Amino acid sequence: MSPYESDPADRIVTAAADGEDQAVEAALRPKLLDEFIGQERVREQLSLVLQAARKRGTAPDHVLLSGPPGLGKTTLSMIIAAELNAPIRITSGPAIQHAGDLAAILSSLTEGEVLFLDEIHRMSRPAEEMLYMAMEDFRVDVIVGKGPGATAIPLELPPFTLVGATTRAGLLPPPLRDRFGFTGHMEFYAPAELQRVVHRSADLLDVEIDPAGAAEIAGRSRGTPRIANRLLRRVRDYAQVKHDGVVTPEIAAQALDVYEVDARGLDRLDRAVLEALLKLFGGGPVGLSTLAVAVGEESETVEEVAEPFLVREGLLARTPRGRIATAAAWHHLGLTPPVPSGQPGRGTASAQGELWGPTGGR
Length: 362
Ligand SMILES: Nc1ncnc2c1ncn2[C@@H]1O[C@H](COP(=O)(O)OP(=O)(O)OP(=O)(O)O)[C@@H](O)[C@H]1O
What we know:
Oligomer: single chain
CATH architecture of the largest domain: 3-Layer(aba) Sandwich
CATH superfamily of the largest domain: P-loop containing nucleotide triphosphate hydrolases
Largest sheet: 5 strands, parallel
Helix content: 40-55%
Distance between the termini: 22 Å
Bound molecules: adenosine-5'-triphosphate
Number of helices: 15
Number of domains: 3
Order of helices and strands: HHEHEHEHEEEHEHHHHHHHEEHH
């Protein structure tokens, strides 16, 4: 049976927002730059951009925020609007399929408004081209009619600030990237920063938590505030049902064990992949498809859902000969790595060596 029967998008450790996240996130979002935890460099740079714009009394340059999901791009866009005392309009690349959709949004903006365009790399080509002119000249050409009779009607736009967000900055065409005056690269959060995020959210949710309890949740949150907030809610449930509601490190650990999120933030799918790699293939190298069959999953699920975090954590490496486990992987699962052939004490290695899988890349 698949170790992960449900949709991988429903994992408790996914960085994408689920329905419950969306419902509670509004209450947990920091409202001003000073309340925003971590991302020191982006915060400092952005603070300068905003202060300068306020001083000049003009709309600031367009801002691009890039980084993995759940790190606070939407939150920062709302903070930008709040700091500028400006209204914000929120939309996303996939919602803008036709240039006309974008023209409708742009032409209804008010002066100084912030337009947040999430997943900007997923906009259609014609809309993207319209955006170039809008960003640079605050003007769009609206095409009326079709074929040889079509005419372009120029439309002046009020000055506005575009905040684009993308998980894939590399996919943005250079002409679009170049039109942003400031790009903020969001990094995964350090455990101490996530501990502060958990504490802050616990206060807002009226959950009593001790510092070590917050540290326990932070350590399992994969560097991502959205995951930290989600784990906090599950730990709160456990603490309220099984205990007196206070979150201690022991209670946090017990609760997250129930949800199968281990001390390093790996879930059942991540561990199944690592266990197969170590126990069945002696740590590799093994091809992706062989590894996927061994865990009863599609290759894409292993490659796109489990591997990025395992690679980031330094537990698994992708090589031209296939996937290999690192020393940290053996250590994490409490297993002893085989001794390389030709060295003394090869006994365990040969026993496991017989199980080594094919060594093709895929
Ligand atoms: N620096 C931070 N301090 C406190 N909370 C944060 C911080 N960054 C993010 N959060 C919390 O994490 C949650 C997710 O943040 P947000 O929606 O801004 O992420 P995102 O990068 O826009 O994700 P996506 O790309 O999936 O839209 C929010 O509820 C917010 O409260």
